[in-house]
Amino acid sequence: MISTTQLDALLAGGGDVVDQDGKKIGGIGQVYLDDQGGQPAWVTVKTGLFGTGESFAPLADATVHGDDVHVPVTKAMVKDAPHSDDSDGHLSPDQEADLFRYYHLDGGGVEAPLFDQDADTNAVDLDAGTSGTSADSVTGTETVAGAGHDTSGPDTDDAMTRSEERLHVGTETTEAGRARLRKYVVSEQVTRTVPVSHDEVRVTREPITDENVGDALSGGELTEEEHEVTLTADHVVTDKETVPVERVRLGTETVTERQQVTEDVAHEEIELDGDDATTDGTAPRR
Length: 286
Known about the structure:
By secondary structure, the protein is α+β, with helices and mostly antiparallel strands. It has a domain at 4-139: SH3 type barrels, CATH 2.30.30. It is built from 5 helices and 7 strands; from the N terminus they run αββββββααβαα. Strands 1, 2, 3, 4, 5, 6 and 7 form a 7-stranded mixed β-sheet that branches. A hairpin with a 5-residue loop joins β3 (40-47) and β4. The protein is rod-shaped, with a radius of gyration of 53 Å. It starts with a helix and ends in a 69-residue tail after the last helix. The model is unreliable at 109-147 (pLDDT under 50).
């Protein structure tokens, strides 16, 4: 909790508001007191171009380091916080409730600003604003006996609403991949066996007989001559032709399967708290 001495230092030093990550948010504007306990509740931060805008940051669990005040929230959260028109020097119940809901804090009345660093004087009465009105008068509601009221913020009605998350599962079609046909040429060796033939020379010697003596003497008695024959042989020749052998087509088919989906769903629970509290006999819902 910020002490009176620390508030004096903040007032005199003209420091900055720093977020939980050590980032400067902006200059200190005004400090607002809780009108019930007189404790510092909010600090306004000068943001925007030339510090013309002011955002509210909570002082709950805030700490002071030198001239700066460190708040337990992020810079982005402070800059996006609801901006309140506090020209009358006081937050309205609705404005305060919006801030409590935004920062997820317990509610409480906030009185006029403790100090304004744009003022002409640095002197301040640290007790000012501690005599604020009660919580019921600040919120503008009237407590009805036996009806109950909200202790965490402004009164709504005499009951709580319990909510829970419901899981809805569906499907959407997305691109999972692509398939394509690609044709390329592969060479392989093919072996075939074919018959081939060739001529070979054979010399046949015949003895002279009465039947061939005439042919033997037709050439003269002693002569020189040559006799030849032509030899032939088969040589293997090849030829290739391209013929179609099959048709290949690319298509798709849908295959359906079951897939389990697991998600966390949250729900609210309401329990009874009190030493002398009684119920109507209905078991609490879990």
